[in-house]
Design goal:
alpha/beta; 10 helices
Length: 257
């Protein structure tokens, strides 16, 4: 892969602010695009200036499902930063609960969430944007019926897009390749997340490696995604000890694919 094909989710570097220094490092490394998070609450003018100074674009962003209550605000912010794809990364948060508890839903709840998310698709399309969903591992844990949560929520609007996190899908116990093929008409972006060992807890952030240093078969997955309409290949590590080393090693490994 060329460096120009690779983006990075800014969440990876959230503990290493200021973002001016971070984006300058991205630019020096050959990265020209980032994925933002928390679009609904960031200082858009500030980020526009920072990104412009570093010659960095942002074609996608994560927003909370709750932020869609004010859809126009999200659309206006996205347009100001010339973002094309708005991605919801999780169901509505549960009050006073750990993040993982957000995903403790039965089949009916997953189905309802999918329907509610899909109701917003037309609003974004009318504004020239796409709306999508980003998975964690939990969407690939079978429900009692045998159906997967990701299926329950993605089947209500053919234009609801999908940002497949290939690492989290793997952590959920599936081979991501069949899901890349199943949702080939929905996937517009992917997260590249790798793990040192499949025998250790993949929900433990310390098990996350630079992309290409782990066990996931990136050659096969990236080739399959490039045959589809996947537009963004986005590096993400949930808690790197050294974000510069993580990015440098990942870029070097991906150059051989």
């Amino acid at each position: 892969m060329e460096k120009s094909e690779i983006s990075i989710q800014l969440y990876t570097t959230r503990k290493f602010e200021p973002y001016e220094n971070i984006l300058n490092f991205f630019s020096q490394s050959g990265i020209t695009n980032i994925e933002l998070f928390g679009l609904e609450s960031i200082n858009v003018d500030e980020f526009k200036t920072i990104m412009g100074s570093a010659n960095i674009s942002s074609r996608s962003t994560h927003v909370s499902f709750e932020a869609l209550k004010d859809t126009q605000n999200v659309i206006d912010r996205a347009k100001k930063l010339e973002i094309n794809h708005v991605i919801v990364p999780a169901p509505p948060a549960r009050e006073n609960a750990e993040f993982k508890d957000t995903f403790q839903m039965d089949q009916s709840e997953w189905t309802t969430f999918g329907k509610n998310l899909s109701l917003h698709v037309n609003e974004f399309e009318d504004a020239g944007l796409t709306l999508g969903y980003h998975n964690h591992s939990y969407e690939f844990n079978p429900l009692p019926s045998g159906k997967l949560p990701i299926e329950c929520m993605m089947e209500h609007n053919e234009n609801l897009k999908f940002e497949i996190d290939l690492g989290w899908a793997t952590a959920g116990g599936v081979d991501p390749l069949p899901w890349v093929e199943k949702y080939s008409n929905k996937i517009i972006a992917c997260h590249l997340k790798d793990f040192f060992s499949k025998d250790k807890d993949m929900l433990d952030h310390d098990n996350q490696s630079a992309v290409g240093d782990g066990f996931i078969d990136w050659n096969t997955l990236i080739l399959a995604l490039k045959k589809n309409d996947c537009k963004l290949f986005i590096l993400e590590h949930d808690d790197p000890k050294d974000y510069k080393e993580y990015i440098t090693r990942s870029l070097k490994n991906l150059e051989s694919i």
